[in-house]
Amino acid sequence: MNQADTLQRFLFDGVPVRGALVRLDGAWQQVVTRHNYPAAVRHVLGQMIAASSLLAANLKFDGTLIMQLHGKGALRLAVAECTNERTVRATARFDAAITDAPLAELLGEGGTFVVTLEPKEGEPWQGIVALEGDSIAQMLENYMQRSEQLDTRLILACNDDTAAGLLLQRLPDGHGDVEGWPHVVALADTLQQDELLALGADDILYRLYHQETVRVFDPEAVSFACNCSEERVGEMLKLLGGQEAADVVLEQGSIEIGCEYCGQRYVFDEDDVNRLFNFDVMAAVREARH
């Protein structure tokens, strides 16, 4: 059983270690089919969307975990988000000539990796991930160790059909054999990427830990969802200002804005702009021009 689009959390009874497995099939396809991403971009986004799902699994608030890779090379931006409701989305900006290359080369000098926790209520929290390591997994492992003092092992994989990942974390106040962490990690490191992509959580846990006592929680469904809306786009246009919005409509006939995540198009004509600013801003701008 592949257990498509699920997050499976688990806990070792004899070792102070918790973990999670995620497999994204349909949700990942929703990202891939909306954009014609080159292979190099798909490889980065697939790992990031799996990683965001895994790290969000242990969040204790209602909100969103956002990962952002900012680069000055061929990969300008890669973003993956996961909410506490287990919905994901992702997007990227890149040079048209981007080709397969190591992550550091894709990002170029001066790249940054930012993790943001954005609760529905309260202030967001943001951390900068050092670009230390050859992969997204290694960078996040280093980040968790330095920011949370939490030993973490991440294994990430993706292809055109599936994005998947395994997360292990040593609990600071756990129970059982405190020296068992290296053993659990060593077994995880035997997992091949093609196995991670092909097998479901039950099969992977049995394959790695059938000699351990592992408490497996109910699987949680993960799905693609975008929170864009006409209202949100309207709020963005309000920040642009009435005159600027009216100028664009007068020059182009309307304002058209597309969501970078899901591709939804939003069109605002003269009536929409007047309604947005709650007065006849179009007439005012026309009069000012004359």
Automatic annotation (TrEMBL):
SS bond partners: 226-228, 259-262
Pfam family for this entry, one: HSP33
Principal cellular location given in the protein's record: cytoplasm
Subcellular location(s) per record: Cytoplasm
Keywords: Chaperone, Cytoplasm, Disulfide bond, Redox-active center, Zinc
Domain of life of the organism encoding this protein: Bacteria
PTM (free text): Under oxidizing conditions two disulfide bonds are formed involving the reactive cysteines. Under reducing conditions zinc is bound to the reactive cysteines and the protein is inactive.
UniProt KW Acyltransferase keyword: no
InterPro entries registered for this protein in UniProt: Heat_shock_Hsp33, Heat_shock_Hsp33_C, Heat_shock_Hsp33_N, Hsp33_helix_hairpin_bin_dom_sf
SUPFAM superfamilies (UniProt xref): Hsp33 domain, HSP33 redox switch-like
PANTHER family, per database record: 33 KDA CHAPERONIN
Function description: Redox regulated molecular chaperone. Protects both thermally unfolding and oxidatively damaged proteins from irreversible aggregation. Plays an important role in the bacterial defense system toward oxidative stress.
HAMAP family, alphabetized: HslO
Similarity annotation: Belongs to the HSP33 family.
Name this polypeptide is given: 33 kDa chaperonin
Species, as recorded: Vogesella alkaliphila
